[in-house]
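FORM 7B - TANDEM STRUCTURE REPORT

SECTION 1: FIRST PROTEIN
SEQUENCE AND TOKENS:
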Amino acid sequence: MKIVSHPELRQLVEEKLKEGCSPESIAGRITNHEQHLPAISTDSIRRFLKSVYGRKIESFRKKLLTKQKRRNKRRRANKLKGRTFIDKRPKIIDKRARVGDSEADFIVSGKAGVGYDLTVVDRKLRVSFIEQILPVTIENMEKAFLRIKERYPEMITITTDNDLLFANHKRLEQLLNVKIYFCHPYHSWEKGAIENVNGEIRKHIPKSSDLSRYSPKFLRSLEEKLNDRYLECLQFFTPQEMLDRHRKRKQRAEARRKNIK
């Protein structure tokens, strides 16, 4: 009833539940960063979901969270030449200690569909980027990476898997001015951050989908949703908030350096 009786609180809770946020993340965000709203516990949000007031939302969330069992085959290469494997990755990347160390992956269309989606996530800030690859060629993959690099100039390293699209990975390193590290074949857990992001994306784009049917506008809206989630690992800030804060700190530091000169 605490949620029901407070319109602004109820609006926020319902909105974020529909977006797929967990009760834990919503409660943490309100407690830590929304002081103008009354504090609410995780249990209260769960009780709200089970009540007559939250049944429609709970039904919506179940449909959203339903996992597709069908698995698509991935195009992989076991003999990409000149790869640098994840074992050689600097310790600072493993510690998520700096902005710009990213993970990348492809989301693939179903058998009847065409196109890939390129997904990239910053390991520290958890901010995500999505670009469509259509038709699927190495050149179009490189263009998709360059579009992300324009929006995410902080990118300095990429950790990814062994897809055939990375046949010219040395050229991609030069185009992006980054270092690329490869997971061991079939060890997808070595890039857990992007796997989690792709899991969130699959709640909105089922695995059997034809990716060519999803417009760039839809993908950008989905990207905004991903970056507007309250994450416990970010102390219940959103990835976009963390990226904005990082860029503001960097601008202030650059301004101070110019003043000193």
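SECTION 2: SECOND PROTEIN
SEQUENCE AND TOKENS:
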Amino acid sequence: MLAPLDHIDAWIFDLDNTLYPASTDLFGLIDQRMGLYVQRLLGVGPEEARTIQKQLFREHGTTLSGLMRHHDIDPHEFLAFVHDIEMDAIDEDRRLVEAVAKLPGRKLIFTNGDVPYANRVLERLGLSKSFEAIHDIHACAYQPKPHAASYESMVAAFGIDPATSLFVEDMARNLRPAKAIGITTVWVNNGSELGNYDADMSFIDYEIHDVGQWLHEITGDME
């Protein structure tokens, strides 16, 4: 373990476009389902629906939060609809599985998605038994990353110490609140949509491009 990280005892990972490559474009399928949901909800065409969806995402952190605030939708219904996708594009990643297994301490998932969806993704990756728990949008009381309350709820739920925790995430703006409470931050700069939005290296401790490769490097097992 590299000296700067030998104090870490809680490893926290985002899910989408972090534990699998952004090129998989799984979120692209979810994005299409979100657009369709907005079309049906508001009775608008595809282009207007996309404009509304992206505005809600930028202003509220997730499309779901925006729709809940402005249209009082059922979050469970929404998540079931948008996550009804095929996951054939994701394959088991033995390199990542082995690297995560070698990390000392606790391992958690922190996602703006929900537990059922996260479990499907983790199973496809071969990581279904690799993490202690998943802190999802329901557990955050629908205050998604990057709302400070979501990080506070995650820290409180698992009794972790921010000073000895590390958070890996592809959305740079989602690292700012983590850094603010003392969590070591890792930005996966992999070209995901809006991934570098609000990026500022002052709140990013490490910039990487591939989680599996980086984990192998820091555990000293890079071939």
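SECTION 3: OBSERVATIONS ON SECOND PROTEIN
The beta strands are 10-13, 106-110, 133-135, 165-169, 184-188, 206-208.
The two ends are 15 Å apart (CA to CA).

SECTION 4: SIGNATURE
Preparer initials: ____
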